[in-house]
Amino acid sequence: MTSPTPAWARLWVEHETLYHYSIPVENALHVACLRPLSDVGQQLMRFDMAVQPAPAQSHTRIDSYGNSRAHFALRAAHSTLRVKATSEVLVRARYADLHAHQGPTCAEVRERLRYRSHAPFEPASEYLHASPYVPMLPELRDYAEASLQDQRPLAEAAIDLMQRIHRDFLYAPASTDISTPVLTVFAQRRGVCQDFAHLMLACLRACGLAGRYVSGYLLTVPPPGEAPLVGADASHAWLSVWVPGLGLAGADDWLDLDPTNACVPGLHHVRVAHGRDFGDVTPLRGVIRGGGDHTLLVRVTTRLLAEGVGEPAVAPTWGGVP
Hints:
By secondary structure, the protein is an alpha+beta fold. The protein has 5 helices and 13 strands. Strands 1, 2, 3, 4, 5, 12 and 13 form a 7-stranded antiparallel beta sheet that branches. A hairpin with a 5-residue loop joins strand 3 and strand 4. Helix 2 packs across helix 5 and helix 4 (182-188) crosses helix 5 (193-206).
């Protein structure tokens, strides 16, 4: 007899960022987007962010996309900056009952997003247009139209587009950086997770459909018999496409798709933030005075604490590093 499919998983994530400056930084203002989202499909059970040296000022606010942003200021001279975010998250199987062949067609969703004078505002339309990292390109519209056909159910069509990108493009670490244009990625047929998320978003938007960028973490499983390596994981990126009437509790009309892995994200994807593109959800950014040259080290560790079928206990249980 096969074991029941888990309905939830509890994950532990540590994300550490370390800057070393060649000369001291005199003054710095930073914004961190590291606190995972908490909603029906994902519950943040515990979060802590430690900054060294200690900030002179700090505050947290929710941005226009619903993400938590921590703002902090450093007024004393410093040669290093360490930001360590530790999270414990309960993830539910939001798409276990997905029926991709059902739901609205591409044409029906395009019509709902089409501008009409004096019509009620549709919030998803914020993710319909070009953004700094996601331009409107005819080449990508032509590529996407083979999947995003008018009478095809949008969920099914978007999954097909995701699978084509996974098949046609090579995952190649260090082959690009955040400044690499989407059109270059399209021409070279290689990139990393943020490239594939931007590429698919550009395809969707060029075809009149709404999509948003998702930043987060992915639990990686070591080879059999080998222990997981501390700090060996990385931040991950995927996207969501707006499918009104999706009908799934916890999905809120958004279907998450991971073109890097050709999958609908499940229990091992932790969502941190979403926006128009990477620029809206950058994990850590800032403005500094001084510093000279710098080196950057980022370490991410993700661990599975528990998973199960029935309703989980939701009270936080914090025992340090598993």
